[in-house]
Automatic annotation (TrEMBL):
This is CFA77 protein. The gene is Cfap77. It comes from the Eukaryota.
């Protein structure tokens, strides 16, 4: 049973008073005093931005150099590392300046007036379009001409009847 108001004691003995908890870094760690007193003395080092590779130019150069296989293209890319020069001309997928009215690369949709929804305006517009479409379809059906096939042509214009000729073999001609 623990003493009243005190937690259970664990079995481990704590290290001595000279023990330092955590990792001590002598060059950068100045403790709390340095963090509070000298927080604004950090000099920012501006890193040079490495532009992405310009694969269009590299592929064009590889084709002009006569590369035909994937291995040759890879070697060309390895030794002829061409980077994009203009920061505005970044390849797809790289972050660029996004307008304020865009969310996740898509423009915001225009707001739909609630009055039009309540008065079923969109249903009426759809019904008008459907009526106009059916009128156009009916006009097209009326304009549709039936093509004459050979059968319908022969029904209207029957071929002339051939006269029957009684053919006899040549040996019976001289009888």
């Amino acid at each position: 049973q623990p003493e009243l108001g005190k937690p259970l004691r664990n079995c481990y003995s704590l290290p001595g008073l000279n023990y330092t908890y955590g990792l001590y870094l002598p060059r950068t760690d100045g403790g709390v005093a340095e963090a509070i007193g000298h927080w604004d003395s950090v000099k920012w080092v501006r890193k040079k931005r490495i532009m992405p590779r310009d694969y269009v130019t590299m592929n064009r150069g590889a084709a002009e150099a006569g590369c035909t296989t994937a291995r040759e293209f890879a070697l060309y890319h390895k030794y002829m590392d061409i980077r994009c020069k203009d920061p505005g001309r970044l390849p797809r997928g790289w972050p660029s300046k996004i307008p304020a009215d865009m969310t996740f690369g898509r423009p915001t949709r225009p707001s739909i007036p609630i009055v039009d929804i309540i008065h079923h305006r969109y249903k009426e517009l759809w019904m008008e379009r459907q009526r106009a479409r059916t009128v156009v379809q009916e006009l097209q059906k009326k304009k549709l001409e039936v093509r004459e096939t050979r059968t319908t042509f022969l029904r209207t214009h029957p071929p002339p009847v051939k006269e029957e000729s009684f053919w006899h073999p040549a040996r019976f001609e001289k009888v």
